[in-house]
Every structure is written in structure tokens, then in C-alpha cells.
Please model this.
Amino acid sequence: MTFIILTFGVYMPNDLIAATVVDDFLVTGELEIRLAVTGTILYPAPAFLGSTSLGSLVGYGASGATVLMWLAWGTGGLVAGLMTKDIFPGLLSAIFSAIIGAFLTWILFFMISAPFATTGIAAIFQPGSLLIMQASLEGVVYPAIACAIGGILGGAITRDR
Model:
């Protein structure tokens, strides 16, 4: 959903997604970079932890939480809750989808990074890679909240009565 909205981002208001993020998305034709920009939107750094966002670390994409992130994760949580047909499994499946997505985003950023091209898989334990992993995992806070709300609602709608 986020990928499609960014494709037509020039027509979206700045309140939904900033024009600079859309420009970062549309300036390249490489799928990996577009997915990385999408990852910076989906995993923003929570301000109360004082952490650095993925977008700030890599130099492109979103540097904070956007309305689009809340819409995407809330919808994802709602779908997860609808599929489980109960409240507690809906909550768990929604939250774990955000956590698994953070690890996949970290792997994506690792695979397109320069150290991976030169040293291979051994670069996974270098400080730059671990900082990106930390930013991805700290960025799960807001998506987990949105997913939890969506998962509870989706599970409550479809539960057996």
C-alpha cells in the first residue's frame, strides 16, 4: 500500500507524506532503493527514545513518523486481526508482523550497503550494519502500536460470539 501511494506521491498532500520523501522515492528506478525509502517510512524512530531514524542514518527517505506510516500499519494490523478471527491472536500476529518486517528491512539495507559489496556476509557484524539494525528495531515502537490497535479491532470484528 505504501509503495503504491509513493508511486503517485506527487498528487498526495504534504500532510500525508512529505514531498522530499516522494522525491527520494521517484528519483531512482532501482527497486531496492525504492523499497529502502519505503522502509524508512514504515519504521520511524520514536522521539521519546532519543534514537536516530533509518532515514537519518542512510541519508534518504523519511526521518520521522508520517501519517502514511500510521495508515499502513493500522491497515496491516486490521487485516491480521481479520484473518485470525479472535482478539488475542489478532493482536499477536499484528505485532509480530511489525517485528519481522523490521528484521527484513535491516537485511534489505544491509544487502544494498557498500560494505556488503566488498566484504560479503562478514559485514553483517560491522558497526554500520548493527546501527541500522538498532534503528530498525527501535522503529518498531510506533508500528507496533498501530498494528496492535488494528489487530484488536480486526480480531474483535470477526470473533465468534
The chain has one domain: 2-158.
